[in-house]
């Protein structure tokens, strides 16, 4: 492991001290800066010295030595706050970690703590760790968590994660958290392996993030006893208050499927909450178009509008997550020793910055992007286009299950009895019912049933983007589903829509069929178009991309289409097994 990527070496530390002694010149001086001291919760005025990527001094003095290369910035009439932290990112919602980070920087989110699920599915560990190291060269601080489960029901779950792999991830310096615990019911009752991984995370003094939707106080207490530190699943002020009462760090979501932040803050007014030290924000892996106005900056804006004290609203995006992850010595404040992540604001209550310093370099200056992030050579890490060595035969589009899945909302499905004729080539347009199939990307198995509530017209949709990396087919016409599949295969992965014998939309996902390397601004336009087309064809909810992602996710009720078959999640029963091809 390249340890120098994760900490300053002795030589660098000596140089930092030499700047204070006047032997070296700082690289930047932020002169007469009004900045938020998140410890005192006060706005102070100081001169801030930066040497390369680190803040080395905050105070009244100017340095004894400067050089021609020292940049002196007059900060009068601006307000400086620490760079924002997204503590719970899922950086593979069509975008990739690099494109998300590049976009996040433009509105002041300078640190991302990322899900590692796709690297577990797509890469061997050596390649994954090389990629983590590569991303340390970005101006964004990129951290990761280590999952303890696949969040679905894989055919080879025991091989997906083993002790050695999880412990290697937990010991990696870029990994600062264990979880999230989507498999918490198993851990609570019988999963000794998951409990062991939790304890190893605690031994390494890293956080354990829960996933406890609707959990009672007793359940939260039990999981606290087992080692959980935080949870982001509150959907009301009362639920958030309950977590704080028990000593959890609690992130409030403002996400595309759970935009709860404003309502929770309104609830908290009635509960007279005035202590914010263990409250964070998260956008919880929102789909691209939700980020049109930014990421954590938008959360701060909502908090200020809802009456959270301004100083606390910024601390919730900086100091609080730094403390949660035991990174306070490196991140979360404008203070000596911290990474030089600094946002420049026009006003205290305007959290979208006009300028951004990331690791001491300008990412945004006076509203203009200064430096693009160094590109990632995805092929170097075997993250190429998806290549299938098999084809789909039309006669495999068979749907004969007696039980289908009916959408309650974007992501929750309940069972229903199927009455439609399964052998038809096209389903009646008068019904909001479609065929649905999950196919192994290696071509070994398939699972099929019906899906109610996704469309009442669309001929076919095929997506290589899914929670397990397998291929989803949905539609009312078998011919259009086959057409969309063939085009998706030609693209090397993506989301393709076909209707009445024509391709009407395609979104290439050139990184293993799961992510694109297109800029976020372009992707936002594409996803907005996809959503509009699907809604025009009868999609009645708000986030079809999340529907595709979570069709096979077994941490949600009630029925799922998984690699092992149609599953009753609550009973953990396989109602109808997958069919081998």
Question: Can you walk through the features of this model?
Answer:
This is adenine deaminase. Keywords: Hydrolase. Helices cover 27% and strands 25% of the residues. The chain is built from 17 helices and 29 strands. Strands 1, 2, 3, 4, 5, 14, 15, 16 and 17 form a nine-stranded mixed sheet that branches. Strands 18, 19, 20, 21, 22, 23, 24, 25 and 29 form a nine-stranded mixed sheet that branches. It has a five-stranded parallel sheet with strand order 6-7-8-9-10. β15 and β16 (361-365) form a beta hairpin. α10 crosses α11 (261-270). It starts with 9 loop residues before the first helix and ends with a strand.
Average pLDDT over all residues: 95
Distance between the termini: 42 Å
Oligomeric state of shown chains: single chain
Based on CA atoms alone, the radius of gyration comes out at 25 Å
Query: What general outline do the C-alpha atoms trace?
Result: globular
Fraction of helical residues: 25-40%
Strand content: 25-35%
Largest beta sheet, briefly? Answer: 9 strands, mixed
Give the total of beta strands: 29
- How many H/I helical runs? 17
Structural class: alpha/beta
Q: Segments where pLDDT lies below 50 for 5+ residues?
A: none
């Amino acid at each position: 492991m390249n340890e120098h990527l994760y900490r300053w070496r002795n030589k660098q530390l000596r140089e930092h001290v030499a700047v204070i002694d006047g032997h070296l010149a700082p690289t930047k001086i932020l002169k007469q800066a009004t900045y938020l001291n998140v410890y005192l919760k006060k706005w102070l005025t100081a001169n801030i010295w930066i040497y390369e990527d680190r803040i080395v001094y905050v105070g009244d003095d100017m340095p004894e030595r400067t050089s021609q290369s020292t940049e002196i910035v007059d900060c009068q009439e601006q307000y400086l706050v620490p760079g924002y932290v997204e503590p719970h990112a899922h950086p593979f919602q069509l975008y990739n970690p690099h494109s998300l980070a590049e976009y996040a920087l433009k509105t002041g989110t300078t640190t991302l703590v990322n899900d590692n699920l796709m690297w577990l599915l797509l890469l061997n560990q050596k390649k994954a760790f090389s990629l983590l190291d590569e991303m340390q060269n970005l101006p964004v601080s990129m951290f990761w968590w280590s999952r303890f489960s696949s969040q679905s029901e894989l055919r080879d779950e025991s091989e997906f994660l083993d002790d050695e792999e999880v412990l290697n991830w937990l010991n990696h310096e870029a990994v600062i958290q264990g979880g999230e615990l989507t498999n918490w019911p198993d851990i609570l009752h019988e999963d000794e392996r998951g409990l062991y991984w939790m304890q190893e995370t605690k031994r390494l003094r890293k956080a354990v993030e829960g996933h406890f939707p609707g959990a009672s106080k007793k359940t939260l207490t039990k999981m606290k006893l087992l080692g959980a530190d935080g949870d982001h699943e509150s959907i009301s002020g009362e639920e958030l208050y309950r977590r704080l009462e028990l000593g959890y760090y609690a992130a409030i979501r403002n996400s595309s499927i759970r935009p709860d932040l404003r309502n929770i803050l309104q609830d908290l007014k009635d509960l007279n909450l005035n202590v914010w030290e263990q409250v964070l924000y998260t956008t919880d892996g929102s789909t691209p178009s939700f980020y049109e106005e930014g990421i954590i900056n938008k959360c701060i804006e909502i908090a200020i509008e809802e009456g959270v004290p301004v100083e606390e609203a910024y601390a919730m995006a900086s100091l609080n997550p730094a403390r949660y992850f035991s990174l306070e010595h490196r991140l979360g404040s404008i203070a000596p020793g911290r990474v030089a992540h600094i946002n420049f604001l026009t006003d205290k209550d305007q959290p979208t910055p006009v300028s951004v310093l990331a690791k001491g370099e300008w990412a945004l200056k006076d509203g203009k992007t200064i430096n693009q992030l160094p590109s990632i050579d995805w092929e170097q890490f075997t993250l190429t286009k998806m290549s299938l060595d098999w084809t789909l035969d039309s006669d495999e589009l068979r749907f004969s299950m007696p039980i289908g899945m009916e959408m309650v909302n974007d992501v929750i499905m309940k069972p229903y009895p199927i009455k439609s004729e399964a052998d038809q080539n096209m389903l009646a347009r008068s019904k909001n019912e479609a065929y649905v199939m999950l196919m192994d990307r290696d071509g070994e198995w398939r699972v099929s049933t019906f899906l109610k509530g996704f469309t009442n017209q669309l001929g076919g949709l095929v997506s290589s983007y899914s929670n397990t990396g397998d291929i989803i087919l949905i539609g009312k016409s078998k011919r259009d589903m086959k057409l969309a599949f063939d085009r998706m295969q030609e693209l090397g992965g993506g989301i393709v829509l076909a209707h009445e014998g024509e391709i009407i939309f395609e979104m290439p996902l050139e990184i293993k069929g799961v992510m694109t390397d297109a800029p976020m601004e372009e992707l936002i336009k594409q996803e907005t178009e996809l959503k509009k087309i699907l809604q025009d064809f009868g999609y009645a909810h708000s986030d079809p991309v999340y529907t595709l992602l979570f069709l096979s996710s077994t941490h949600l009720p009630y029925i799922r289409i998984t690699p092992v078959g149609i599953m009753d999640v609550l009973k953990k029963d396989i109602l109808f097994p997958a069919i081998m091809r």
